Amino acid sequence: MPNEAAAPPLLIQGLTVKYGSFIAVDNISFMVNSGEIYGLLGPNGAGKTSTLKTIIGLVQPASGRIEVFGKPISDEVAVKSMIGYVPEEIILMDSLTPREFLEFVASIRRLDANTVNTRLEKLVSAFRLGEYFDTPIAALSKGNKQKVAIVAALLHEPQLLILDEPLIGLDAFSSKILKELIVFHAKKGGAVIFSTHIMEVAERLCTRVGIIHRGRMVGEGTVEGLRKIVKNAGSSLEEIFLKVTEQESGVQEIIKALEA
Ligand code: ATP
Predict the structure, then answer these.
(1) Which helix or strand (DSSP H or E) is residue 149 part of?
(2) What is the dihedral of CA 167, 223, 35, 81, to 10 degrees?
(3) Hey, is 260 helix, strand or coil?
(4) Where are the beta strands (DSSP E) in the chain?
(5) How far apart (Å, rounded) are the C-alpha atoms in residues 160 and 31?
(6) Which atom of ligand 1 sits closest to the CA of residue 43?
(7) How far away, in angstroms, is 48 Cα from ligand 1 center?
(8) Distance 121 CA to ligand 1 centre (A)
(9) What domains sit in the chain, N to C, each tagged with a CATH number?
(10) Taking 70 as the threshold, does the pLDDT of residue 245 lie above it?
(11) d(CA 213, CA 243)
(12) What is the pLDDT of residues 127-164, one digit of tens each?
């Protein structure tokens, strides 16, 4: 029996994801501990979304072990109650209003009405969604749909947040609020894993990062730790990222070509 008290929020061992014969994620392993904000980085098509989707069961792994607080992801009911997930591509129920949609989510999660109302009030006000609360989702902007999806993922106060490029589409204010929420969540002992292309955000927010390139984990640890390991790279996470994903010389070539 796994020791759930000591089990990390997320444990991934030897994960491989295939689409037909194409290997999108190639034998990667990492864990996310309580109180951690883990950044999953990688160029377009590296395998970040595929990795995140396996955790919530949207993609079936070809092999590997995934556990959430010591529970295998096949234990869907237990695992889903501990996870809040915001996908890269938001799909909501367009004919409902945010109020109706979030009430629906709360009912599926079997949340008590008073608790939900208090949480909803805080989150809706934090993301300035109040004025759109009774507008059909179909009529909302991309950013406001994204905010509704974030509120839906936070409603049951999950211990593990899984966010796939959560800042894309958010305005500066909402982006700041989400970053504050992520930090607050980790400070309370929760865990967060999020994918991003914004190196500055990852560098500032993440306790550790995992850099995936062509499905493989090519760099993992604290930014400070990576600075020591990755030779001949600058000190910023962006420079380390470009080095380990073998894109640094490409950037230099393009700069030279532009200057010529
Ligand atoms: P991005 O930063 O562009 O969102 P990503 O790191 O999230 O990329 P994935 O979406 O996981 O990458 O894709 C990894 C690889 O798997 C890509 O080559 C992609 O084309 C491929 N892929 C993803 N989903 C499918 C699918 N359903 N069928 C076939 N190939 C897929």
Answers:
(1) helix 142-154
(2) 50
(3) coil
(4) 10-19, 22-32, 37-41, 63-68, 71-72, 83-86, 160-164, 191-195, 208-213, 216-221
(5) 12
(6) 2
(7) 8
(8) 36
(9) 1-82+160-171+189-260 (3.40.50.300), 92-157 (no CATH)
(10) yes
(11) 11
(12) 999 999 999 999 999 999 999 999 999 999 999 999 99
- Mean pLDDT for 232-245 is 88
| 59 CA: nearest ligand 1 atom | 27
Distance between Cα 129 and ligand 1 center (Å): 31
CA of 115 to the centre of ligand 1 (A): 38
Condensed to tens digits (0 to 9), the pLDDT of residues 183-220 reads: 999 999 999 999 999 999 999 999 999 999 999 999 99
- Ligand 1 centroid to residue 104 C-alpha, Å: 30
pLDDT of residue 160: 97
**Per the structure block, which two tokens stand in for 256?**
């030279």
Helices marked H in 172-220:
172-187, 199-205
Atom of ligand 1 at shortest range from CA of 212: 6
CA distance 25 to 92: 27
In what order do the strands lie in the sheet containing 71-72?
A: 22-32, 10-19, 63-68, 71-72
Cα angle for residues 19, 25, 31 (degrees, 5° grid):
140
**Confidence band for 1, pLDDT divided at 50, 70 and 90:** very low
Say what percent of the chain tops pLDDT 70. 98
For residue 16, the cross-strand partners are 63
Q: Is there an atom of ligand 1 within 6 Å of 50 CB?
A: yes
For residue 101, what are its two tokens?
């949609």
**Closest residue (by CA) to atom 28 of ligand 1?**
19
Tokens representing 246 are 């073998």
Protein residue whose Cα sits closest to atom 10 of ligand 1: 49
